[in-house]
Design brief:
Blueprint: H1 2-18, H2 39-42, E1 44-47, E2 50-53, E3 58-61, E4 65-74, E5 82-91, E6 96-108, E7 113-125, E8 151-165, E9 169-182, E10 187-190, E11 193-195, E12 198-209, E13 214-218, E14 221-225, E15 231-239, E16 250-262, E17 268-280, E18 292-294, E19 312-316, E20 324-333, E21 346-357, E22 364-365, E23 376-387, E24 390-399, E25 410-416
Parallel strand pairs: 18-19
Antiparallel strand pairs: 1-2, 2-4, 3-4, 4-5, 5-6, 6-7, 7-8, 8-9, 9-12, 10-11, 10-22, 12-15, 13-14, 15-16, 16-17, 17-20, 20-21, 21-23, 23-24, 24-25
């Protein structure tokens, strides 16, 4: 029955967006397109020879509380071949400074090839898997960060090589070495050794392919225009034991397909399909979660917060971890309601599903969690852009992981769309 429901959502979604031809947008981005100068579009605010990165100014999460910072990178006014960059931030709840410092050198202009070397002392969410090339695409607002509760501290040296091929392909090759300090009581048992902290050395290759995405690149960042074909991101990471006392050998693989279709009737459908695999001696900090976004509180209104862009709204933080994980999400946006010039809300229908596995939970001590051996399913609606970019989100959890109390399966949050 669960499989039937899953496939029903899948094929009904595919049927829905197949009925109406998509808008032809091959000519959206041309050499005559005016480059937007608004810093909220690019993510950088130029101050003479320095581009301040707006992402570092203010953030909030449950571990750091309010996090204030400043950072950025030098621009071509200082040098066209070299740059210096970094940031400094302070969390008012944990009362600790975080920082990064480094620089880069342009090796070729043809593919905009840069070699960068950085040192970073910061925190990172447990179970998060970052596609390196996706980080090159700027997003001014990351709503899920507000609710994250589980982090680890790290001190990392990294060197990377970044390239852009013809505006359609982004690639990055990275070497890194990190000292990891879990926050809390987590311990990792490996080969009869108990680790409360550890070191990892990683080699990572990442690529992002946008076959027909029209884009323009400015000094301040990258701006994209979608035309329907999927963006494909793939990444492989190899952990190597014995490099500067690194402790583990492991391999991690990830692939993501991001498919956006816009139709003549001004409705649109977005499909996200991703899969991840890890094998070897992988601690919990470096495994996978399915982007949970439900605070671990009893009442619905206590969990009222901001909804994420690709997260599972009814899945509680720290509830599931996996070494094999696949997720499927579909969001169908109806044509916006033209109530007035300023009020044009948008109704979005959403269905999300995930399945995963973790072979040996006994190696991970001090943290209680479950595994996604069966389909996890939630569906819901969003009514976005009601006023000043704010809207509402509702989601319900059903299927195998449905909880006994009704209200524990419900997520009620607000949404926020920032667009300039």
């Amino acid at each position: 029955m669960r499989k039937f429901i899953f496939h029903l959502f899948l094929f009904s979604g595919l049927w829905a967006y197949a009925q109406v031809p998509t808008v032809a947008t091959d000519s959206i981005a041309t050499n005559t397109v005016e480059v937007p100068s608004n810093p909220f579009n690019t993510g950088f605010y130029p101050i003479s020879f320095f581009d301040a990165d707006l992402r570092y100014i203010i953030k909030y999460n449950n571990y750091e509380g309010i996090r204030l910072g400043f950072g950025g990178v030098t621009n071509d006014k200082l040098s066209e071949k070299y740059n210096l960059g970094g940031y400094i931030a302070y969390g008012f709840k944990d009362k600790e400074f975080k920082y990064s410092l480094g620089g880069g050198a342009r090796l070729t202009e043809t593919n905009n090839t840069w070699f960068n070397l950085y040192y970073k002392k910061d925190i990172q969410e447990i179970g998060s898997y970052l596609q390196l090339t996706d980080q090159l695409i700027y997003s001014v607002f990351e709503p899920r960060l507000v609710n994250i509760t589980q982090f680890y501290k790290h001190k990392t040296w990294q060197g990377n090589l970044q390239q852009k091929w013809g505006g359609k392909v982004l690639s990055e090759f990275r070497l890194s070495h990190s000292s990891i300090y879990p926050i809390g009581n987590y311990q990792f048992v490996n080969n009869e050794t108990l680790y409360t902290s550890y070191k990892v050395a990683e080699v990572t290759a990442s690529v992002r392919i946008s076959p027909k995405t029209n884009s323009i690149v400015t000094e301040d960042g990258n701006i994209e225009y979608y035309d329907g074909l999927p963006n494909i991101s793939a990444q492989v990471t190899q952990g190597v034991k014995g490099i500067f006392d690194s402790n583990f050998d492991y391999t991690k693989l990830g692939i993501k397909l991001d498919y956006f279709l816009k139709r003549n009737d001004l409705s649109s459908t977005k499909i996200l399909l991703d899969g991840y695999l890890a094998f070897g001696d992988v601690p919990l900090t470096h495994l996978y979660h399915a982007y949970p976004n439900n605070p671990t509180k009893d009442e619905i209104l206590q969990r009222f917060s901001v909804a994420g862009l690709r997260s599972f709204e009814t899945m509680y933080f720290g509830e599931f971890f996996s070494e094999r994980l696949a997720t499927f999400q579909i969001k169908h946006s109806l044509r916006r309601f033209n109530i007035s010039r300023r009020i044009q809300p948008e109704l979005v229908l959403i269905s999300r599903h995930a399945i995963g596995d973790l072979s040996d939970t006994q190696k991970h001590l001090g943290v209680d969690f479950d595994t996604l051996d069966h389909f996890y399913s939630e569906s819901g609606i969003e009514l976005n852009k009601l006023i000043f970019g704010f809207g509402l989100s509702f989601a319900y959890r059903y299927g195998f992981y449905n909880l006994p109390d009704f209200e524990d399966n419900v997520s009620f949050k607000f949404t926020f769309s920032l667009k300039f």
